[in-house]
Amino acid sequence: MFFKRSNGEFRETDRVTRFKLIKSGKNWLRASTSNFGLLKVIRGQVEETIVAEVREDAASVKGLTSRGFIKGIVVATAVLGATTLVNTGYADEQGKDAVPTSALVSSAEVATGSESLSEQDSKESPVVDNESATEAKVTAATSTEVAEDVPAVDDKAVLEQNASEAALLTKIADKYASNHQNSEQKAAISDAVAKVQSELSAGTNLTEATAQSYADQRARLSKSVDDMMATLKAAGFNGNTTVNGAPAVSAQLDAISTSNTLTATSVSPKMDEPNGASIEDPAWNNANYQLDPNTDRYTYSIWDLQNWAGSANQGGVTYNNGGYYVTFSVDRSAVGTTKTPTVHARLVEKATGKEVETLDMTAKSIYQFKTLVQENPTYAPQFEYTSGEASQILGTWTNNRDAGPTLDDRYKHHILQVRDTVKPGNVGETKPNVQTVIPIEKVTHTTHYKVEGTNEELASYAQTGIESQAYHASNPRTFEGYEFTRTDAEKDMSGFLGGVGAKYLELQGGRAHYYVKRIVEQVDKDGTSVVKLYALDPSKVSSYSPATDVNNLNLDNYTLLYTSDPVKPGGKPTPAGTTDALKDLGYVDSKDGQYHLRVQTYTDSGNGNVRLSGWYNKATGDAFTGSPQFSTDVDPVRNNTSNIIGGNTPGDKASGYPSFFNNYSLPSVKQISTDVTHYYRKSEVTGNVYVHYQDTEGKLIKPDVTDEKDQPINKAYDTVVDNRPQEIEFEGKTYELVPAGNYTVGEVDEEGHLKSTDPTTGAVAKEDKNVTYIYKLKEKPKGEVVITYVDENGKEIQKPRQDTPNSPYDTPYDTTEEGEKPNTIKSEDGKTYKIVPKGDYPVGKVDENGHLEKSDPVSGKVTKPKSTITYVYKEVNGNV
Question: Which among 818, 817, 827 is positioned nearest to 789, based on CA atoms?
């Protein structure tokens, strides 16, 4: 891979997951790479033959905590071929490890390649950073090495870091699967996600493991992520957003801030853990339009500028690509601090994706792009930043009213609203004049954990983000002494901050409700909502199924008939018309255009109503009486005895089908909350945790130990802390925990725990937990004793002699015995040496035995694998 810097570049070729520290000024930069196969993740830099601008000083961290690793990340890397991965993280509420996301990777510089890294040779090259950085070298680490600059204890932190990214990917995979139509592919994705989650759990259960154990777990996690991404690709997944026109995977690692409370005795997972909670930007999958590449900004709206496509005498309202689109974004840091943040508008050439011009818009001003004014000064669009009840951008065209080719189509220029996160109902609308509301507020979503009946709160988890961002609520947890019963408003486990776009089903759409669905849809963060009525379409009767169409928000087989005016919480829609003089809204056509249905409204005593007829054949005027046929226990009848869609029993055509209608009331709009509550009930049930100790053959070598006795369910237990001895004395022998592997008794993990038994840590349950640790007979250590013979300078003058062969520790030895400490030695070159007297010599201090004092004692007991005793001699001339 190549990293392009201000004054140099380097190549890193190791595919093994490793990490390094790079010195930059007074700080250290962490460059840790996790091999995810199709997905490569790197901290602070870019991986997989990608050329990118990297400002290391912006990615520096003071501390190397696992919390810090996750913050301040922008990762751009090869995923699914040409797909890019972009992870954006923000500092926690204390401001630690804050990093401007745009500083790490200049997205315009990113280019993917396909060169196989495994075929390259590891090299070492200098990296020259900017003026504040010192020169540093980055050395590739092999599969069995860890860079010396990084302590081995960081292996656990890197695993945690990898796990956080894997967890994000599982959410993306789950979301993709939930909307996938192919049942086989959907099941395959679910299986792949389950495998990743299994490896995540295995990683969480690792405690006090070796560096190699953490590395092995990272490899297993990487393999499971590889498989999941490959399964997603096979199912047609090409990313959930676009970056520079290319498919991309996007996930925000953290909320702007989080908080939690805990009144219960204990909880698992701990309340400072998200437990599935997340906040991220709404998914973006339209490759024709790019979001603002500056990830410090939140792109909330995109407008496509369009021109009339017909000839001058044709009329009509068909529009084509006008050549440009505009993105609107705000600085994330400004949200919640001002009602009128600066809006960054980008004019982008649609054919190339090139940014042509930018505007920084402030309140109470009107702007135009010079590029568009120069191209067409008469009809150039203009953008007005207004403030008041809501801050918004109004888009209009100069002289547009006079630009149309005919009197019936007097507005030649239109704007297609492609993205609108605050008012998603605008998406897909094409109008001469449009507006988009600016997100200016932070919104907090809270997950509550409460006791059934009493409403006592056991705990809560709150996360804050930008209004209209997507959220996922925190999942149920386990509380000591309580049992989980249900989740209230489970439909709100995922949604958008502020609730805009949230839908609530009030009529289920089955036979009992004349196949009509009544839905309340929130259109503003203050709870303002509209009421919509849908009816089963005649052309979809054959594909109707109670299993997929009833009691849900699936509208594939239904046609929208009516939308009320917006109503604030506490109010009711009160449409025009009275019981004596209904307001006729006309007819709505079926999807195939062969049928239509009449819609009328009226208000009676302050209560709004909509009258729907049944469907009529437009050609013959006959009432449509076709309908689905299902058993009454599957699709209840109630009053719809004639099984009619929309209206009631038709009656006689000659008399005008007098009873072929139904009245549907319009409900009050309630104050909507998307907060989620998980409910629990207090339990008197208790449980036990027992620990067993066996050898590799399954023989009991220590009496069972009770770790927890008659404790409330869901109380956390941990057998590792006090009931997993490293050694056990049994029948005069010493046993020690076995390393991970397969034994006669079964497979054992890194903790010496028999995997077929209950986990070493967890929660007390109604059923007893039984944890088993496996031990092997500890071999007595052995060592040898070797004598060496050197001159005053330390040069060997005679081959070493073994005094004591490999023997158990505590075996006595004595190197002063006859023949082992000769007074004179004749070397192979014919020289004669005599043992030296006590004194200091170049080789070191020698005692009265001619023994080099810094070597092992001349006599004693075997205490280590090898003891070396050295005697020192001096060459003599003549007779001795």
Answer: 827
**What is residue 262's predicted lDDT score, i.e. its pLDDT?**
93
Q: Closest Cα partner for 780 from 862, 852, 850? A: 862
Query: Cα(15)–Cα(141) distance, rounded to whole angstroms?
Result: 9
User: Mean pLDDT across the chain, nearest whole number?
Assistant: 78
Strand partners of residue 460: 261, 448
In Å, how far from its chain's centre is CA 291? 20
Both structure tokens of 531: 């009421």
Q: Supply the DSSP symbol for 369.
A: -
Question: Which residues does the chain have with pLDDT short of 70?
Answer: 1-154, 178-179, 181, 207-208, 240-254, 308-321, 389, 398-412, 671-673, 878-880
Give the CA distances from residue 449 to residues 189, 446, 457, 458, in Å, rounded to whole numbers and listed in that order: 30, 10, 6, 5
Cα distances from 101 to residues 116, 380, 585, in angstroms, run 29, 35, 52
End-to-end Cα spacing for the chain: 70
Bridge partners (DSSP) listed for residue 718:
761
| pTM of this structure | 0.52
CA distance 630 to 541: 12
Q: Distance between CA 193 and CA 628 in Å, rounded? A: 37
Cis preceding-peptide flag for 822 (omega within 30 of 0) = no
Are 367 and 382 in contact by the 8 Å Cβ rule? The answer is yes
Which residues fall within 8 angstroms of residue 406, CB to CB, at 6 or more apart?
312, 313, 314, 315
Q: Domain ranges in the chain?
A: 2-254, 282-437, 503-665, 684-777, 782-876
Q: What is the DSSP string of 630-664?
A: --TTTS--TT-TT--SSS-----TTTT-TT-EEEE
Tell how strand 733-737 and strand 727-730 pair up: antiparallel
Q: How many helices (H) and strands (E) does the chain have?
A: 7, 57
The reply to whether 684-777 and 782-876 are identical in fold is: yes
What is the model's pLDDT at position 852? 97
Please give the single-letter amino acid code of residue 112.
T
**DSSP per-residue codes, 589-628:** E-TTSSEEEEEEEEEETTEEEEEEEEEEETTT--B-----
Helix %, strand %, coil % of the chain (to 5): 15, 40, 45
Does the domain made of 782-876 have the CATH classification 3.10.20? yes
Q: How far apart are CA 466 and CA 279, in angstroms?
A: 9
Q: Cα separation of 226 and 41, whole Å?
A: 12
How far apart CA 238 and CA 249 sit, in angstroms, is: 8
Q: Looking at residue 154, what is its pLDDT?
A: 64
Token pair for 142 = 């092999």
What is the C-alpha to C-alpha distance for residues 462 and 475, in angstroms, rounded to an integer? 12
pLDDT digits (tens, 9 = 90+) for 493-510: 888 888 777 787 888 899
Write the pLDDT tens digit of every residue in 637-661. Answer: 888 889 999 988 888 898 889 989 9
| CATH architecture assigned to 684-777 | Roll (3.10)
CB 438 within 8 A of CB 420: no
Burial of 174 (0-12, 13-18, 19+ CB in 10 A): middle
Alpha helical stretches, state H, 71-207: 154-178, 183-204
Query: Distance (Å, rounded) from C-alpha 307 to C-alpha 399?
Result: 14
